[in-house]
Design goal:
By secondary structure, this protein is an alpha+beta fold. The chain contains ten helices and eight strands.
């Protein structure tokens, strides 16, 4: 999955052909591979009758290895893995595990976390589970669209992205509109969202801010945590903030860490 955008198997097959020709390996970020497979099943020609498990297997068969943050599709609280199909690379990576993580049989994870991950992988491949998971995200997205909230469309599989430039056209991008909107939603209802705009984009080598085209607020929905009633509460809060949007002012950054500032920066209202 590139930058959170779903990949199609048609694209991956074409990429595979090209990389084989040039002797380049494909390492898949399979963190959201099951959600991606769901969209292939729903949208790509020829896959409507294939199970998510079959589509995931086909996806992986077109790659040489994969990284997985198992906190996402694999439904666990902690953990992940690197998988490769080249024995030499595997042996080198296994040796590095001993140095950096723990013995190769558990890779720094507790046995119970590994067991939970094994079960999580299996359950994440269930067609019913994935239809319910993505269905909940779509439920929220459609409610927000009906309420007139500007969101990115089509609705994705793991969250909703609010278009802060359209929500707060009066706040200049230099005054962090998506961050200001995330703060306003949190103040209104305690719903914790995430800025994906100028704060996340960071600075160029010459110190100037990047001003990305997209200035978004992400509402990422954890799996199997919330009910549809929670989605209704989120919608009510965002509608309330939208009705009062003219009162929302921009922000000034008062603390900026050197790296990945979106995790730790602090702001004050202008
Ligand atoms: C596709 C994808 N890969 C990797 C990561 C990062 O995972 P971690 O938080 O375990 O570093 C994320 C986080 O959201 C993700 O969406």
């Amino acid at each position: 999955m590139a930058g959170g955008q779903p990949i199609s198997l048609e694209n991956l097959k074409a990429l595979r052909k090209l990389t084989l020709k040039h002797g380049i390996k494909i390492i898949l970020d399979m963190t959201r591979v099951a959600e991606n497979a769901y969209f292939i099943q729903q949208r790509e020609k020829g896959y409507a009758n294939k199970s998510i498990a079959e589509i995931v297997k086909e996806t992986c068969s077109l790659t040489d290895g994969a990284t997985m943050s198992a906190k996402k599709d694999a439904l666990v609280n902690i953990g992940g893995f690197l998988a490769v199909n080249d024995k030499k690379v595997f042996e080198e990576a296994r040796n590095m595990v001993v140095i950096y993580e723990g013995l190769h049989t558990y890779g720094g994870l507790a046995g119970r976390d590994l067991e939970a991950m094994a079960i999580g992988i299996e359950e994440s491949l269930s067609d019913d589970h994935m239809a319910a998971r993505v269905g909940q995200v779509i439920y929220l997205g459609e409610k927000l669209i009906d309420a007139g909230i500007p969101i990115v469309q089509p609705i994705g599989g793991h969250g909703i992205f609010i278009d802060a430039k359209r929500f707060l056209p009066h706040v200049k991008q230099a005054q962090f509109p998506a961050q200001a909107l995330a703060a306003a939603i949190y103040t209104d209802s305690g719903v914790r969202t995430m800025e994906r705009g100028v704060v996340s984009a960071g600075r160029k080598a010459n110190g100037e801010n990047y001003f990305p085209k997209l200035e978004l607020v992400r509402l990422t929905i954890p799996r199997r945590v919330y009910t549809q009633a929670h989605m209704d509460v989120i919608t009510e809060s965002i509608e309330h903030v939208y009705q009062n949007r003219k009162k929302i002012k921009g922000l000034q950054m008062v603390y900026e860490p050197k790296y990945l500032r979106f995790f730790q920066a602090r702001f004050k209202p202008i």
